[in-house]
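Shipment paperwork, digital attachment
Item: protein structure file
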Amino acid sequence: MIVENLVFYSFATVLLLSGVMVISARNPVHSVLFLILSFFLAAGLFVLLGAEFLAMTLIIVYVGAVAVLFLFVVMMLDVSYAELRQGFLRYLPIGALIGIALLAELVMVMGHWATPVARAKPDSPVPVGSLVTNAHAIGHVLYTQYVYLFQAAGVILMIAMVGAIVLTLRGSSHNRRQNIFEQVNRRPEDVLVVRQVKTGEGI
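Attachment content:
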């Protein structure tokens, strides 16, 4: 029990410090690296709580895909750090308001506050005991009680992906677009040239 407490407090302390470094580091690459460290530490906390499925999902999805994608994007983009710092004071009130809202949510969670929906008895309770695994319990709740919210989240992510592609392709004159009508109606004599080359002679 003492070892588990030591590991928990060690992971939690480093997680808080790495979270602070994510928003305070001057180099965006360092911020992404601290974010990856935070994901690993959060996964370790999930393992201590007995939620191995959430820990593996956090590592595979966020560390293996999202965080690495952030890292490559930040490294490839030519970001002007001076321009980013100029708008800090302008967005400070909005950021402070969002920070206060998140702090209030954390206080409610730590105080075991629950909404009336959370207090209500679920329609299809999850089987209790050691007969089900973590993945089975999560899937049972996700695809029964929250199936519509799960589908709505998928639609929102698809819209965000399509919007990102449209914003990337719009207004660029160097993009090469596919013209299927021209490809289908293309004739061999328009793209092929047959030359008779004599032996010993080159073009």
